[in-house]
Amino acid sequence: MSITVKDVEHVANLARLELSDSEKEQFAGQLNAILKYAEKLNELDTEGVEPTSHVLPLANVMREDVAAPSWPIEKVMANAPEEEEGQFKVPAVLE
């Protein structure tokens, strides 16, 4: 598979980019070099290699979701610049 200047123009159009002719040629060459390098992976013998999503075995590192008592509302609101009916009062951002 190879990337043509026409492919670069199509992607540039989708991305709303204006590219000069020299940039189109440059990007086509660079993208083809990337594809050529990626094709080297097909040369690897992957027989017997189990597919993985990560190189290291990972387990869920989250803590248990345990219910805990909340802080008292008075203590929470002690640092609020403004408070109204037990809620933080902030300036309106919508009209």
Automatic annotation (TrEMBL):
Subunit text: Heterotrimer of A, B and C subunits.
Described purpose of this protein according to its UniProt entry: Allows the formation of correctly charged Asn-tRNA(Asn) or Gln-tRNA(Gln) through the transamidation of misacylated Asp-tRNA(Asn) or Glu-tRNA(Gln) in organisms which lack either or both of asparaginyl-tRNA or glutaminyl-tRNA synthetases. The reaction takes place in the presence of glutamine and ATP through an activated phospho-Asp-tRNA(Asn) or phospho-Glu-tRNA(Gln).
UniProt lineage: Bacteria, Bacillati, Bacillota, Bacilli, Bacillales
Keyword Protein biosynthesis annotated: yes
A biological process from GO: regulation of translational fidelity
GO molecular function: asparaginyl-tRNA synthase (glutamine-hydrolyzing) activity; ATP binding; glutaminyl-tRNA synthase (glutamine-hydrolyzing) activity; transferase activity
Name listed for the protein in its UniProt record: Aspartyl/glutamyl-tRNA(Asn/Gln) amidotransferase subunit C
Encoding gene (name): gatC
Reactions performed catalytically: L-aspartyl-tRNA(Asn) + L-glutamine + ATP + H2O = L-asparaginyl-tRNA(Asn) + L-glutamate + ADP + phosphate + 2 H(+); L-glutamyl-tRNA(Gln) + L-glutamine + ATP + H2O = L-glutaminyl-tRNA(Gln) + L-glutamate + ADP + phosphate + H(+)
NCBIfam families: gatC (TIGR00135)
InterPro entries referenced in this protein's UniProt entry, alphabetically: Asp/Glu-ADT_sf_sub_c, GatC
Keywords for the protein's UniProt record, in alphabetical order: ATP-binding, Ligase, Nucleotide-binding, Protein biosynthesis, Transferase
Enzyme Commission designation: 6.3.5.-
Tagged with keyword Methyltransferase: no
Xref: Pfam families: GatC
Protein family (similarity comment): Belongs to the GatC family.
Top-level taxonomic group: Bacteria
